[in-house]
Write a structure and sequence with these properties.
Blueprint (H helix, E strand, L loop, with lengths): L1 E2 L10 H15 L12 H5 L4 E5 L2 H8 L3 E8 L9 E2 L1 E6 L6 H7 L2 E3 L5 H12 L8 E3 L3 H9 L5 E5 H10 L1 H4 L2 E6 L3 E2 L3 E4 L4 H13 L3 H7 L3 E3 L3 H5 L8
Parallel strand pairs: 1-2, 6-7, 6-8
Antiparallel strand pairs: 2-11, 3-11, 3-12, 4-10, 5-8, 5-9
Length: about 240
């Protein structure tokens, strides 16, 4: 049986995620003793042994729909954003005054993965809205790697999941001082929790809701968790699928 909460799992959030899983497991009444941090995420998402995991909206609608069951969408309480939704911060090096149009024309976009809503789909849509396409790109493999690419001058701008950016910047204030957010993308449904296709999601959703409600204030501050929201399959699937980079 697989339980994984790796989408926002960073070294400084590991212990809080472990405590959250312990509480979820106690509420569900079964499950592995520990969170899985080693299984390939795609293998875990598609496993018939999946109890709970978190995926991204783009993988869900592009490849996982019909293979998994939605449990619910965690709400991270992002400012100026509907519950359960999120956006990307468009980031650039501090002191770079180029706007999005100029960065797209003269700079390089760092993106984490071609199947990332926040790292590719949202920035692509934002750039497309001004009639441009990000031709000069660098695939990094992760949001933190995209941040580092901008800091290291290997890229000039990036779209970073807002929750990831807030968590990372809280843990790395000195590095974060070298960046600035200059735009937010349009909010879209957040990163959903999923379970195996043949598993009833309702008791899992209840367990997650109760576990989040019982979190300590310290863990809530680390993980930004406010609750669990019900966002429909149709709402996720209504979001456009961008062209692959």
């Amino acid at each position: 049986m697989i339980a994984s909460l790796r989408m926002y799992d960073m070294p400084h959030t590991n212990a809080a995620h472990d405590r959250l899983w312990t509480a979820i497991r106690a509420e569900v009444g079964y499950g592995p003793d520990e969170l899985d941090r080693t299984t390939d995420m795609w293998a875990g998402w598609q496993s018939p042994d999946l109890l709970i995991s978190q995926t991204c909206g783009l993988p869900y609608r592009a490849r996982l729909f019909g293979q998994v069951t939605l449990v619910g969408t965690p709400d991270y309480g992002l400012r100026d954003c509907p519950p359960g939704y999120y956006y990307s911060y468009m980031v650039r090096r501090r002191g770079d005054r180029r706007n999005l149009r100029e960065l797209t024309r003269t700079g390089r976009l760092a993106y984490n993965d071609p199947l990332s809503q926040s790292g590719w789909a949202a920035p692509f849509a934002q750039i497309a809205s001004i009639g441009q396409t990000p031709e000069n790109r660098l695939e990094t493999g992760g949001h933190v790697a995209s941040i580092q690419a901008v800091l290291d001058d290997r890229a000039d701008y990036a779209g970073i999941d807002a929750v990831t950016y807030l968590m990372w910047s809280a843990a790395h204030p000195d590095a974060a001082a070298g960046l600035e957010t200059f735009m937010r993308t349009t909010p879209t449904p957040g990163l959903p929790l999923i379970t195996a296709l043949n598993r009833d999601p309702k008791p899992i959703a209840r367990a997650v809701t109760r576990a989040i409600k019982a979190m300590s204030e310290a863990d809530r501050a680390i993980l930004y968790l406010k609750g669990l929201i019900d966002i429909s399959e149709a709402t996720y699937r209504a979001q456009p699928i961008p062209p692959m980079p």
